Amino acid sequence: MASKAASPAATAPNWRAEAARLQIDARAFINGRRAPARSGETFDVLSPIDGKLIARAARGRAEDIDDAVKSARAAFESGVWSRHAPAQRRRILLKWSEKIVAARDELALLETLDMGKPIRFSHSVDVHSAARCIAWYAEAIDKIYDEIAPTPANALALIRREPMGVIGAVVPWNYPMLMASWKLAPALAAGNSVVLKPSEKSPLTAMRLAELAIEAGLPPGVFNVVPGLGHEAGEALALHLDVDAIGFTGSTRVGRKMLEYAGRSNLKRVFNELGGKSANIVFSDFAELDRAAATAAGSMFFNQGESCNAPSRLLVQETIADVFVERVLAQVPRYLPGDPLDPATVMGALVDAGQMRTVVNYIEAGKLEGAACIAGGTTARHDTGGFYVNPTVFDRVKNSMRIAREEIFGPVLSIIRFKDEAEAIRIANDSPYGLHAAVWSSNIDRALRVAGALRAGTVHVNSYDEDDMTVPFGGYKQSGNGRDKSLHAFDKYTELKTTWIRLAAK
């Protein structure tokens, strides 16, 4: 998802002390201000670091979603944002980006306490990537031109992009700020209003982002946040008749529900960014095996393996498999779970007890199906009360096994051995998913040939997970539709309107 070269700052705060002083407001944010749920109900937000209560968030339901959508619609129809000149929207979004950077310590701490990822990455990757995303779309919006069609001389046809109206955004728990920014930035830059439903597992940064947006000058009602449970607030947002589109990132199971909700309501557009089971293919002709092994481990265990594009299927050519597997195993000790609030930690806690149980169940399934568990396979840091699993590596995996076919969303790597190029392509494409893939080869002809044959939205060559805002993110097959990032994201949040003008004859 983002660069993993970050290191602890020499002047890093005392994160434990900062956490003790932190005052968390977990109420909803509707029409420019904080608000409890109409029912007065809350739900507990537990930190995966130690399993302790850190906040009670407003439990938004259909009536709260309706308040947020009405606020968003009123703001849109008033033109207070939607009819702002692009340069004016640019100025406010840039100021919002600056405020996010200024609040980086608070936002990073909220993210780590809420989701369990190491503070070093929350601070240096997640916050800055979110701010960069908002700034990038701010800079883009007043540099995009509309079109004039090549019509006959007696007509003039204008083709314009217009904001859709009210966008519902539903984002996951693994990259709360970053995934929110990927939806918010293009949707708001285009002139829409947005109602965001963050995951109930990590809702805290979303409301703070909304406050910072208001401070930057975003008009009230343009950006609203309703925390709540998926089957309550999320379903209500997806079913709402006055929401024009849904931008969703999450599981394929819920993505199917989003399409169902659209069919049951107003046929709103649904843009799903879903799961992955990405194939990372290493050929015997690649010269830098140490780099490939370090990247295979680092990309897999980054964010505790809780990444939709994690390279969880490592395909290694048989002639180098034994040597390469040993080099991967040599990387594993670097990723033993540590205290997420320690700036030296590189792998933290899984998001909650349920996700830890899911990962452990997959590990047991891999063993039962006959894969060789050659590293990890156990939980860790039991005395903390948190949710930690050791980095786990399976060898001799068959692509028919559950651990090779289903998204685990945890630090579990499956190594599959292959004979030749044709078999590697066949195995890689034998998946319901098609998000990311990689090819490692010193033969450029082979690398490009295989990359062209892989059914995936992004294919890396001699790298993995290198990224930039300028390139689209999304997948084939059950990994979803539409694209986040790049100028292509505007396609999701704008309507194309043709204005045909008949010209008078001389």
Question: What is the overall number of helices?
Answer: 15
Q: Outline the low-pLDDT stretches.
A: 1-10
Mean pLDDT: 96
User: How is the main sheet built?
Assistant: 7 strands, mixed
Helical content, roughly?
Answer: 25-40%
Reading side by side through the largest sheet, how are the strands ordered? 14-17-18-13-12-20-21
How does this structure look, described?
The protein is globular, with a radius of gyration of 23 Å. A seven-stranded mixed β-sheet has the order 14-17-18-13-12-20-21, with helices on both faces. Strands 9-8-7-10-11 form a five-stranded parallel β-sheet, with helices on both faces. A three-stranded antiparallel β-sheet has the order 5-6-23, with no helix packed on it. A hairpin with a 6-residue loop joins strand 3 and strand 4. The longest helix has 23 residues, at 119-141. The chain is built from 15 helices and 23 strands. Mean pLDDT is 96; it is low at 1-10. The protein is of the alpha/beta class and 506 residues long. Helix 2 packs parallel to helix 8, helix 3 (86-102) runs antiparallel to helix 5 (119-141) and helix 3 packs across helix 7 (204-216).
Topology:
Elements: H1 15-21, E1 28-30, E2 33-35, E3 42-46, E4 53-58, H2 62-78, H3 86-102, H4 104-115, H5 119-141, E5 147-148, E6 155-163, E7 166-170, H6 176-189, E8 193-197, H7 204-216, E9 223-225, H8 230-239, E10 245-249, H9 252-264, E11 269-273, E12 279-282, H10 289-301, E13 313-317, H11 318-331, H12 353-368, E14 372-375, E15 379-380, E16 388-389, E17 392-395, H13 402-405, E18 412-418, H14 421-429, E19 433-434, E20 436-440, H15 444-453, E21 458-461, E22 476-477, E23 494-502
Parallel strand pairs: 7-8, 7-10, 8-9, 10-11, 12-13, 12-20, 13-18, 17-18, 20-21
Antiparallel strand pairs: 1-2, 3-4, 5-6, 6-23, 14-17, 15-16, 19-22
